[in-house]
Amino acid sequence: MNDNMPMVEVKNLDVTFDTGRHRVRALAGVSFAIAPGESFGLVGESGSGKTTVLRVLAGLIRQWNGGITVAGKPLTPDRDKDAKRAIQMVFQDPYGSLHPKHTVDRILAEPLQIHGIGDIENRMKDTLEQVQLGAAFRFRYPHQLSGGQRQRVAIARALILRPKLLLLDEPTSALDVSIQAEVLNLLAKLRHELDLTYILVSHDLAVVAQLCHRLAIMRTGEIVETADSEKLAKGELTHPYSRQLLTASKGFDRAAIAAFTDL
Amino acid sequence: MTQPILEVEKLNIRFHSASGTNHVVRDVSFTLGREKLAIVGESGSGKSQTARAILGLTPGQVSAQKLAFDGQSLLGLSNAEWRKIRGRRITMVMQDPKYSLNPVMRIGDQLLEAAARKGSRAALKTRALEMLQAVKIRDPERVFRAFPHELSGGMGQRVMIAMMLVTEPELLIADEPTSALDVTVRLQVLAILDDLVKTRDMGLIFISHDLNLVSTFCDRVLVMYAGQILEELDAKHLQDAKHPYTRGLLACTPNLENPVAVLPTLQRDPSWMAPVDR
Amino acid sequence: MSSTASTGWVIALTPPEWRRWLLTDTPQSRWQARAGRAYLGWAAFARNPLAMLGLLIVLVLIGMAIFAPLITSYSPVVSGDTVADRFLPPGGDHWLGTDGHSWDIWSRIVYGSRTSLLIIFMVAITAAPVGIIIGTTAGYLGGWIDTALMRLTDTFLALPKLVLALAFAAALGAGMENLILAIAITSWPPYARIARAETLTVRNTDYIAAAQMSGASSLRILIGHIMPMCLPSLIVRVTLDMAGIILTAAGLGFLGLGVPLPQPEWGSMVADGRSDILNQWWVCTYPGIAIFIVSLGFNLMGDGLRDVLDPREQ
Ligand SMILES: Nc1ncnc2c1ncn2[C@@H]1O[C@H](COP(=O)(O)OP(=O)(O)OP(=O)(O)O)[C@@H](O)[C@H]1O
Ligand SMILES: Nc1ncnc2c1ncn2[C@@H]1O[C@H](COP(=O)(O)OP(=O)(O)OP(=O)(O)O)[C@@H](O)[C@H]1O
Ligand SMILES: [Mg+2]
Ligand SMILES: [Mg+2]
């Protein structure tokens, strides 16, 4: 692969949901590019379309307009197995993303069977090791796992197909701070070891600063600002909405809230 | 001092199953006035079960020396008596909006059902729309007619809060109510709760993992570990907590200004567990 | 054999050992995980005395059907002396008495359990799969497929069981096959509705999205991911319906449209004895009691299963 070629390039992505009476323009011309091996953060208002961006990339939303290339190849709404394999996703809610009647073993084996990959045993052992779950967890059901363990299984399911791009939708917002720290450390380590590219959605600016190189700030279906993480850490974001986010992340403060405007 | 809204003394919750008894809440005692009380602690420490026990909703076996709301004991209430309290005088915002909302029912119908009060449907609808607006939902009309899967994670969570607002409770138990909201909307929603506590004398129990938020929003903090309350602190002084567990939790939190390469994780110590009498 | 060896063997089988194996948090195989889960379900079921009573009744019914020749001394279809053995009251050799054909009532009740079980079994293995396939397909695929399949379901739902069975019997003649067909055809629509409702609640979940993302086909998702979620409520419903099936079969038998004589069937036995109910009360009372007990058994078992498999509906 060419070094200058971005891993993901999204140009003027537009998504409109039609639910009969109402039409929702969830994304209105979103563009960004991410280099291979980079970790890219998406933050912004609730309902601004962050999850929608990920779901389009993951192929879960079929109707969109605009151009997307992944590793130089244009992405179409209908994609083949290889294209599906290259992009995997970790969902926000570790309690809802694992099938309650499947063991960890089955959850991890199924993607391999679908893609006709042999060597299930070794892959599974390696992947469980990568997410620091011992073989003891292999035959447990989700209800026998803690939230952090479930999230690690979800990460393992995404990794087992050896994707290039990992989409992380608020992977730690349902976890306590201690488990969040474990998962964040793990994600940082895996990106390094496996040469992955991340898109991370989070509301926690500190989490984004911890894990990402760059970030985009979204509001009502648009990106209002793109910046690198150093700027975020130093508080040097420029768009008024971004500055409002920075203020808000300092904690509860009635005076600050009163000053919020609907920008 | 006026009478506390809630008094809890030596609350215990046990789960019995074929694999043995699991004692998940141990001798928890606290009182709540017209204030914002936070419960923090790692996952599985018993925060949600404590909260559910107050509403008589835990599937486990509950025992307590005292569990009283507004002077009235909540132990051994009949279903009819519970109906007068639950969802009216005490309401709870559940931890997981996706599980708490009915996936095949429109949001509006669920809001109206929660209101469950007399009045014309039109008046109730106006009020429900107002509540959606109060929690900063941009297009209340659409959300009113939407199914849960058509909403973003944070919108679902705000619907849960709106549902609570239409009932005007005296005690609100909020179980991680804002974990899926962006920081701005989060503070705006918390400001609404703050107003309810200040102007309508509501009591608030606020369960959260976000220690920074808790220390700026709440008045008092209970720190739970393995079903017990390890320490009780003034929220303002949470950053100066003495207990190694609380200090450990604080250390795990990533810091925006100076990110570190590897975050510390919690080292647990069995001696934190106090022996339980009986 | 030395005594130590035999104690060792006994200890290996004492409860704590196998219980620990079943309830471990770290199962070593798929099989152990599944067995552990089944055991927990069973333990919860076994804690409910009424459910256990229901199960006992059903087991006794099955035992009766299997061991019928061993627990009866008369043939259910070869009559005794048409004069001397007619309408014998309970007691003596015929401990539940005999009927107007000089048949031994106990034998006919015992052999009749085979008929009932066969009908239940055939209905369950035809109606339930049809219902689950139609319901999950409609719910998952949605759109016009959903509309079409649900129209079909509603059409069948509108047909009353007895009337349809009557029509079948009139058109094709009374008989076991037609009886089963009639009941099966009117039984599947509720199963399809349950399966569809369940499917609608899971189709938008993240775990289904994850399966779609890993490239799973719709067929794989339907069979491997959605059907397992529909099964519990379906199993409960089918069990609760068994009593109804027995009663329908008995009702048709009572109307003379069920299983033809001389094959023993409880409903037609009740019908047979109804003209003599005052003088020869035992002829219709005993099969009536059998119908009652077995219906009750299935209902109790179904309620118990619901508590274990489908706790929401309490
Ligand atoms: N299936 C759908 N049908 C209709 N509208 C939808 C659907 N999915 C999402 N939307 C709408 O699209 C908009 C963007 O949603 P999205 O989930 O991308 O937000 P988000 O940025 O992830 O928000 P959050 O931070 O709250 O998760 C919302 O207004 C939402 O209601
Ligand atoms: N239905 C149940 N049966 C058995 N044990 C349960 C049940 N529900 C909860 N528990 C156990 O009770 C303990 C406390 O759970 P609880 O939900 O109160 O934790 P929590 O502090 O709210 O954690 P989190 O931050 O993850 O929400 C846990 O160990 C959990 O496994
Ligand atoms: Mg989202
Ligand atoms: Mg909880």
UniProtKB/TrEMBL annotation, chain A:
Q: Which SUPFAM superfamilies match?
A: P-loop containing nucleoside triphosphate hydrolases
Pfam families, sorted: ABC_tran
Specify where it is mainly localized: membrane
Location within or outside the cell: Cell inner membrane; Membrane
Q: Which residues form the ABC transporter domain?
A: 10-245
Q: Which PROSITE patterns match?
A: ABC_TRANSPORTER_1 (PS00211), ABC_TRANSPORTER_2 (PS50893)
Q: Name one GO molecular function term.
A: ATP binding
Summarize subunit and interaction data from the UniProt record for this chain.
The complex is composed of two ATP-binding proteins (GsiA), two transmembrane proteins (GsiC and GsiD) and a solute-binding protein (GsiB).
Q: What is this protein called?
A: Glutathione import ATP-binding protein GsiA
Species name for this entry? Answer: Dongia sedimenti
Automatic annotation (TrEMBL), chain B:
UniProt domain ABC transporter: residue ranges? 8-251
Q: Which domain of life is it from?
A: Bacteria
Q: ATP-binding among the record's keywords?
A: yes
InterPro entries, alphabetized: AAA+_ATPase, ABC_Ni/Peptide_Import, ABC_transporter-like_ATP-bd, P-loop_NTPase
Parts of the chain that traverse the membrane: none
Where in or outside the cell is it found? Cell inner membrane
- Single GO MF annotation: ATP binding
- List keywords of the entry alphabetically: ATP-binding, Cell membrane, Membrane, Nucleotide-binding, Transport
* Any single Pfam family the record assigns to this protein: ABC_tran
* Transcription among keywords: no
Membrane topology reported for the UniProt record: Peripheral membrane protein
- State the family it belongs to: Belongs to the ABC transporter superfamily.
Record's protein name: ABC transporter ATP-binding protein
Source organism of this protein record: Dongia sedimenti
TrEMBL record, chain C:
- Cellular location of this protein? Cell membrane
Q: Which Gene3D superfamilies match?
A: MetI-like
Q: How does it sit in the membrane?
A: Multi-pass membrane protein
Which ranges form a coiled coil?
none
Ranges for the ABC transmembrane type-1 domain? Answer: 117-302
TM stretches of this protein: 50-71, 117-141, 162-187, 238-260, 280-302
Q: Which UniProt keywords apply?
A: Cell membrane, Membrane, Peptide transport, Protein transport, Transmembrane, Transmembrane helix, Transport
Question: InterPro entries per the record?
Answer: BP-dependent_transpt_permease, MetI-like, MetI-like_sf, OppC_N
Q: What single Pfam family name could you report for this chain, choosing any that match?
A: BPD_transp_1
Task: Describe the family membership recorded for this protein in Swiss-Prot or TrEMBL.
Answer: Belongs to the binding-protein-dependent transport system permease family.
Protein name as annotated: ABC transporter permease
